[in-house]
Amino acid sequence: MISRLQQIQVTVQQIAEAISSVLMMDVTIFDQHMVRIAGTGYHRDTVGQRIIGYSVGHQVIEKREEYIIADIKSNDACLVCEKQSTCMELAQLCCPILLGSEVIGVISLIAFSREQQMEIIHKGTQLLDFIRKMAELIAAKTVEKSTVNRLLFLKNQLETVLNFVAEGVIAIDNAARVINMNFAAERMLRTKFNDVLDFHINEVFPGTPIPEILRNGKEFLDREVKMWRNGRQHHYLINAKPMLVDGVIQGAVASFRLVNEGYQSGYSKEAPVAFEDIVGNSKNLAAVKEEAKKAAFGLSTVLITGESGTGKEIFARAIHFTSDRSTGPLVALNCAAIPEALLESELFGYEEGSFTGAKKGGKPGKFELANGGTLFLDEIGDMPLALQAKMLRVLQERVVERIGSVKVIPINVRMIAATNRNLEEMILEGRFREDLYYRLNVFPILLPALRERKSDIMELAGYFMQKHARAYGKDIQSISAEAEEVLLQYNWPGNIRELENAMECAVIKTLGSTVEVRDLPPKIAVTSQSGESLLQHSAEKEEILKALKKYGGSVEGKAQAAASLGISIATLYRKIRKYGLS
Ligand SMILES: Nc1ncnc2c1ncn2[C@@H]1O[C@H](COP(=O)(O)OP(=O)(O)OP(=O)(O)O)[C@@H](O)[C@H]1O
């Protein structure tokens, strides 16, 4: 193991040189294993080597004593040294480097000349006082080093843990500036920590109540915050706590999760959806529609998989309204939208008095509410393992028990589950139960991504253009050939939802009756083309300026401007800097 002195070798050498130049004598410093850590003059060349043989140094370490050796040839301590007869040193002064009661090394001041020897003879105790101070300094440096090492270790440990959790975590200092952020927070806020370090939290996460804590010191749980991003409103549930040092608020830490459109209420109130309402005639989509129609007429559980925004929910609704349960309830629950602790009672309900805060008369769960109809469980991949086991029982036995009750309630419910996750991979990682997967996957439906059905893009774009033009009372008739090319070239990672947002944004911006490239969100226009032309740059700059003029340069204004441009706030700030728009 590397010794304490070895860990700070450079510092030890510097101290040896400083002593040597002040006292005009050579210095050597070695650790408790007799390895030379530093040396000046004659001893410089053997730094890093172990001192062999039994010498005064060994005695300093063993006895933890200081030595003043006025004459090497006659001193008792030197008599035991094998090299005494050939030793070129005339006199020596040795001092242990102590860390508590442990010797971690020795400083030795050496006289090679008569004058230096005289110095040691006449001023030995003063010199020793000085060397002792230097030994204390070195010991303090080793403590400092191990403190730094420990802090680095803790920092790594903390980062590993932070980046392991699925919740977003963000920390601010006492001026509400961002000082830390984990991977999940980066993902959810679509930003990079380095891009927003030291930004005011409101610039990164507008509308969050986290700064309140700096004023009142009160922690809060499950506060809902809505934020516009990419033309879409996102809901977050936030918990936050003050960071206290010696009782003084030094900042705050918040953890949050994205509660995408927490549609907890049933769909029964909503308008029915037929397969004919699902826009798109590509071969891929037509095949899936045929499959889904077959599923609608059975009673089997359906598992819809597909990337986010591919239309899983709209398919689930079409299946329900085409099935012979269409007059029954359609009840939906997004497993990712509900805090884990509440999910069980949402699904299974509870009896009166089953836990603190339980409603009088108890509450039915979604299974009961969906009786005679369909239960749509979205984001099933986010269901915790313990609940998965309970779900499996319901699917096998077709009965539910409310929390806190022993009564068994029979249920007649068709289940449709959906996920954008790869459940088979999750099974291998032990995060999803294989038996539940097979129970759910009776009728699998795989929705293709938009990029896998390019021929649907323009049909959908036209459909959304008309829908939003109607809503905004605008007379927009067509999409220009250039805009069409851009729409077709783009990769659509956010699928149909992203296309709908893009077309809504275009409808808002279009001045005439045709959607042009400049009306599309800059992100789509830029990434669709190979290389960013000067023309695009100036168009983008103009768009940003327009948005900033419209919404104002305040933090809130910038957040709105970013939302209207379909970009994240951090990207807006980057572009403001890039185009010098301060
Ligand atoms: N083929 C389609 N025709 C018309 N609208 C569609 C079509 N597919 C999806 N949409 C619309 O696009 C949006 C996204 O679809 P939906 O919510 O069904 O996707 P999803 O796969 O469930 O997304 P997520 O996994 O993110 O919840 C919805 O507003 C939906 O009405």
Index terms:
582 residues; Beta-Lactamase; Rossmann fold; 4 domains; 5-stranded antiparallel β-sheet; elongated; binds adenosine-5'-triphosphate
Tell me the span between the first and last alpha carbons: 55 Å
Number of helices, counting only DSSP H or I runs of 4 residues or more? 23
Strand content range: 15-25%
What is the CATH superfamily label of the largest domain? Answer: P-loop containing nucleotide triphosphate hydrolases
Radius of gyration, Cα only, in angstroms?
36 Å
- Write the CATH architecture name of the largest domain: 3-Layer(aba) Sandwich
Strand-pairing-aware structural class: alpha/beta
Unreliable spans are 261-269, 530-534
- Please estimate the helix content: 40-55%
Tally the structural domains. 4
Choose one word for the global shape.
elongated
Number of strands: 21
Protein architecture, described:
With 582 residues, the protein is an alpha/beta fold. It folds into 4 domains: 4-148, Beta-Lactamase (2-Layer Sandwich), CATH 3.30.450; 165-258, Beta-Lactamase; 275-448, Rossmann fold; 454-578, Helicase, Ruva Protein, domain 3 (Orthogonal Bundle). It contains 23 helices and 21 strands. The strands form 6 sheets. Strands 2-1-5-4-3 form a 5-stranded antiparallel sheet. The protein has a 5-stranded antiparallel sheet with strand order 7-6-10-9-8. A 5-stranded parallel sheet has the order 12-15-18-11-19. A hairpin with an 8-residue loop joins strand 16 (399-400) and strand 17 (409-410). Helix 21 (534-551) packs across helix 22 (555-565). The radius of gyration is 36 Å and the shape is elongated. The chain starts with a helix and ends with a helix. Bound molecules: adenosine-5'-triphosphate. Adenosine-5'-triphosphate binds next to helix 11 and helix 19. Keywords: ATP-binding, DNA-binding, Nucleotide-binding, Transcription, Transcription regulation. GO terms for molecular function: ATP binding; sequence-specific DNA binding. This is Sigma-54 factor interaction domain-containing protein. InterPro entries: AAA+_ATPase, AAA_lid_NorR, GAF-like_dom_sf, Homeodomain-like_sf, HTH_Fis, P-loop_NTPase, PAS-like_dom_sf, Sigma_54_int. Pfam families: AAA_lid_14, HTH_8, Sigma54_activat.
